[in-house]
Design goal:
Glycosyltransferase, Pectate lyase, globular, lyase, 13 helices, single chain, lyase activity, 6-hairpin_glycosidase_sf, mainly alpha, about 375 residues, two-stranded antiparallel sheet
Length: about 375
């Protein structure tokens, strides 16, 4: 019954609450991620909590990988070493389960298919790079190099990744793999191997070569949708990858393309700060529900682009998206399985992660709030 009650609350607006301080929202989110780690049989982070099934799902290597830098950042910002300790255990676990060829497996730890996949491997790079830079642990450097070398070997000459797609998605050649290129940038920054940066640039060049005149990227969703729509989640992945590879490689043309895409997404932001879950190739939308992860990811993109381009007008889009997600983060419930977490969709019965609280929604929520805090503290934008 809990999932039915949550749908009713969401649709009536009863799940929206007054926003508290960023610190309160961050603490609740960070604590939920630690609970999600404790709720598994290992040191990975549970994929999600399912309110309909009332259970935690198994650890998810892909997103555990990029939760690691979030917890290191939070531990540093708030002088809270217990979160860094959790990140360390996550990284050790990632190294323990790394596949023999260097890749990272698709799906959760209880998935029937065990196979390495490009995107999941690209996301694990963030964790190994951050943990190595924070600890100097040689095992993490070795894991990072093995995984990045595997990605290099799997890349086609034109920069695309066509082999090792996820067996759990229907889209097989993905524009959002620029996010894996961003992971290779982090590997380059951690170990200094320029081959990783060059491969990242090649992938972004290939991705942008396929763009429509209006900046829309094909094959930019988890599924091959007949109407060619794409989730804000995967659109935001692709924007961040293009942007950060552009920064690392000193490619202002990449940054300009990311800026254009981010501005097109902003045109559909609702008055309450949320974004529609799906966009069409004309940058319009056909749905009213929101993908919560996409809101946070776009807040990050807008803030990064404001920082780099000097376009202070982007900050308001980011703050509005952050405030919407803060308003639907439940800080009052007695149910610790969802307190401080972010839903996959709002309302919770939207078609992305239906009835679930995926760990990456909370991870990106934290990243968006911490980046906003950084801007407020240093006042580095007009």
């Amino acid at each position: 019954m809990q999932h039915i009650k949550q749908v009713i609350k969401d649709k009536l607006g009863a799940s929206v609450a007054p926003v508290q301080s960023i610190e309160q929202h961050l603490k609740a989110a960070a604590d939920w991620l630690l609970l999600a780690q404790r709720s598994t049989a290992d040191d990975g982070v549970a994929h999600s909590y399912d309110i309909r099934a009332r259970k935690w799902n198994a650890s998810y290597p892909e997103t555990t990988g990029y939760i690691i830098p979030t917890l290191y950042d939070y531990a540093k910002n708030y002088d809270a070493p217990e979160y860094a300790a959790a990140a360390l255990r996550m990284t050790q676990w990632e190294s323990e389960i790394q596949m023999a060829d260097g890749g990272v497996r698709a799906g959760t730890m209880d998935a029937e298919i065990v196979a390495p996949t490009i995107f999941n491997t690209g996301q694990a790079l963030f964790g190994w790079a951050s943990a190595y830079q924070n600890t100097g642990n040689e095992d993490f450097r070795v894991s990072l190099i093995r995984a990045t070398d595997w990605l290099l070997a799997a890349q086609d000459e034109d920069g695309a990744w066509r082999r090792f797609p996820s067996p759990f998605t229907t889209s097989k050649v993905n524009s959002y793999n620029t996010r894996s290129s961003f992971g290779m940038v982090r590997a380059f920054q951690a170990v200094g191997d320029e081959r990783y940066l060059l491969a990242a640039v090649k992938n972004v060049e290939w991705t942008l070569s396929r763009a429509q005149e209006n900046g829309w990227l094909p094959d930019n969703c988890l599924a091959q949708n007949p109407d060619l729509t794409a989730l804000t989640h995967t659109i935001a992945y692709s924007i961040r990858g293009i942007l950060e590879v552009g920064v690392a490689a000193n490619r202002p043309d990449f940054i300009a393309r990311a800026l254009h895409m981010a501005r097109m997404v902003a045109l559909q932001q609702r008055a309450d700060g949320a974004l529609p879950a799906y966009y069409t190739p004309q940058w319009t939308t056909r749905v009213s529900w929101s993908c919560i992860t996409g809101n946070s990811q776009m807040a990050i993109n807008w803030l990064r682009l404001a920082q780099l381009s000097g376009d202070a007008g982007l900050i308001e889009y980011a703050r509005r998206a952050n405030r919407f997600n803060m308003s639907i983060q439940d800080l009052r419930t007695d149910n610790l399985n969802v307190r401080g977490a972010l839903k996959g969709s709002h309302p919770v019965n939207g078609s992305y992660m239906k009835y679930r609280y995926p760990n990456w929604a909370t991870k990106f929520f934290m990243d968006g709030l911490m980046l906003e805090q950084l801007f407020d503290k240093v006042d580095n934008i007009g």
